[in-house]
Design goal:
Blueprint: E1 7-15, H1 17-23, H2 28-36, E2 40-46, E3 49-55, E4 61-66, E5 71-74, E6 82-90, E7 93-99, E8 106-112, E9 115-122, E10 125-133
Antiparallel strand pairs: 1-2, 1-10, 2-3, 3-4, 5-6, 6-7, 7-8, 8-9, 9-10
């Protein structure tokens, strides 16, 4: 079941992000900077084709994918790794599995009202972020 994730979303909360970044092996200096940022998400969805831009004053990260199609994801803007990524719908949630060096890595997006929820997972750490829709 496809949910409309289109829009511009501004971060309102970011819980346990430092532990998530530690699980990814991100160094302390970058973790300190990243923890201070409030990211925006710009999502363009055309059926099962997505373009997700994660935007900040420090680094930006872009994803372009089709649901259900595995692809090699270059995470050089995140933790400098590559992984095989597959994203599928699980009911009304968009669930990503990233196969690579870090066990249990992935994320889940879902919408409640005008909020976009994002759960980030890596190596047993879980970060929960909430974004508010602006357009």
């Amino acid at each position: 079941m496809s949910v409309d994730l289109n829009g511009y979303w501004k971060m309102v909360s970011n819980d346990n992000f430092d532990e998530y970044m530690k699980a990814l092996g991100v160094n302390a200096a970058i973790r300190t900077i990243a923890s201070l940022l409030k990211t925006d998400k710009d999502i363009v969805q055309d059926g099962d084709h997505f373009k997700i831009k994660t935007l900040s004053t420090f680094k930006n990260y872009n994803m372009d994918f089709h649901v259900g199609q595995e692809f090699e994801e270059d995470l050089s803007g995140v933790d400098d790794r590559k992984c095989l990524t597959t994203i599928n719908w699980d009911g009304d949630k968009l669930v990503c599995v990233q196969k690579g060096e870090i066990e249990g890595r992935g994320w889940t997006h879902w919408v409640v009202g005008d909020e976009l929820h994002l759960e980030l997972r890596a190596g047993g750490a879980v970060c929960k972020q909430v974004y508010k829709k602006t357009t």
